[in-house]
Task: structure prediction
Amino acid sequence: MRDTYRESPREETMSDPDLIKLYTERLLALAADIPLTDPIDAPQARASKRAPMCGSEVTVSLDLEQGRVSRFAQDVRACALGQASASVLGGLVIGKSGAELARAREELSAMLKGAEPPAPPFDGFSVLLAARDYTNRHASILLALDATLAAIAQAEAA
Result:
């Protein structure tokens, strides 16, 4: 029986070298150790985003102080790629503005489509470079940033 993540035909026939290329030791270490997963009490905003193709979902709770993320929690139910992306985000999100995080999302999306990796301080997302060829996983990779930006928009509107 398959898990909840749907796989493309290409992924079902991936060879061992393809899997090794995609699921690097660094990527798996990030996926196994996602920061900022403890819930926060009474957040200013909470938003969830889901990738319909694979079923991955990320819920973010946060507070803003002077337009910057001051408290943050994430509940990540995603594939290893989505988990690794959330891990990178969790390591740098505190103190960032919505504009900075929107830039990170834009640069990560562009990287997945063939552009250079994101500029510092978002260059940690380069660990996901090998996922370029797996377009059906791009939505999962972007989920943590998408949920964070939705929560920021919610907090700013309040």
